[in-house]
Amino acid sequence: MDKAILTCALTGxxxxxxxxxxxxxxxxxxxxxxxxxxxxxxxxxVHVRMQDDGMGHMPSWDPDVAEAVVGxxxxxxxxxxxxxxxGVVGKDISGPLACIRRVKPEIAACNAGSxxxxxxxxxxxxxxxxxxxxxxxxxxxxxxxxMTECNVHPEFECFDVGIVRAVGMYLKAGMLKPEMGRAEYxxxxxxxxxxxxxxxxxxxxxxxxxxxxxxxxxxxxxxxIWPVHQATAELxxxxxxxxxxxxxxxxxxxxxxxxxxxxxxxQCAQRAGRALASPAEARTMLGLRA
Length: 290
What we know:
Layout (H helix, E strand, L loop, with lengths): L5 E4 L16 H14 L3 E4 L16 H14 L4 E4 L9 H10 L3 E5 L3 E3 L13 E3 L3 H13 L3 E6 L2 H12 L11 E6 L9 H6 L9 E6 L5 H11 L2 E4 L16 H14 L7 H8 L4
Parallel strand pairs: 1-2, 1-10, 2-3, 3-4, 4-7, 7-8, 8-9, 9-10
Antiparallel strand pairs: 5-6
Helix pairs in contact: 1-2, 1-8, 2-3, 7-8
């Protein structure tokens, strides 16, 4: 594809806003989204954070909070596309489903497979207790059913090569309805127990994707992510970054906000000879409903 869709992942899941410049309140989310929008982002990937826990750092599945945050972003960025997170551990997915039904985002993340979610310290101690990010087929189907109900386009998040291949099985099984748009893969690289952030690996993955699909990369890390962003642009993928994924600019400096990260991402597209897609163009490219 000639044009590149840019997505901004505005805030982390548990990142402490007292230590890092992640937005939390609706006003903060809207202001950071506007900076990213001005820099060329057509899509805002939205996590919602608790507003009243004294820290503002825990995830929230309160539909009222989701509505306030998404409403503020839409007002600040006319025409922007909202991509709502749905990632949750365990069988109870009532919170994410309630948020989808309330805000009706154009896109929602659909975690496409399970992963041992691990990180180990240099001293051999676990960074957090080993956990399973569980996404069995039955859970994926529940999400897809509600996304179909609400005319929401699923973005299949793939943390490992086997999950990329599993998406092809979902398509063959008819789990993605034609009215939900084109198949879209999000290749998540940089989680310690998932796919590494590696340009050579990235170049191999499109062969395992469905014909006619769209893909992007989500790259988690520091300096090592920027050459892989450039490879994504050159391979025809769509581009995503933001304070959820990194705090570091290509020169190693800490980013003060999302806008400068999107500016750097736009330069990757431009070096690859690709113009940036507007929100309207992104909707057409993804097959989103009007």
